[in-house]
Design goal:
Structural class: alpha+beta
Order of helices and strands: HHEEHEEEHEEH
Largest sheet: 7 strands, antiparallel
Number of strands: 7
Strand order of the largest sheet: 2-1-5-4-3-6-7
Helix content: 25-40%
CATH class: Alpha Beta
Oligomer: single chain
Length: about 180
Amino acid sequence: MDCALDPVTVEILWRRLISIVDEADAAVARTAFSSLLRDAHDYTCMFTDKHGRELAQGSLATPGQAGAMALGVKKIVQRLDISSLRPGDVFITNDPWTLAGHLNDICVMSPIFMEDFLVGFTACVFHHADIGGRVSSGNHDIYEDGLFIPLLKLYEAGKPNEAVLEMIRWNVRTPD
């Protein structure tokens, strides 16, 4: 069977994929407590394939985050045990050497399944104003910047990891 798609179908599917990412983007802006997200659009949403290779990003993606994010998410996916992933899993990290360069850029990422098969990932990197560190641009090492979150499961099969949430709450000025 020939799987080739005509150009019109490809364009329709491509626009649909971009539209879905833009809907995720709009949901972040609509529900954000932070003015950095809501007003300055300091975040980027994207979809990847099951290997972490970028497929699409939102139309309003922040350029400084988008390039680093594409490489970072791919590195994160390569570190995961793919066979252990379940629908409803959500990962969190702000590793500055993997992602966008400082602790305030937090990545949340989740696998996407079709039936029982992993088909991709959705990810968002957003700038969070309060990560618990010293409020200064004169910080000299990473520990002054605030809470370093290694790659952790924030949700497992749809259930929140209360220990991770509690650790974050105890290390930021505005836990709500």
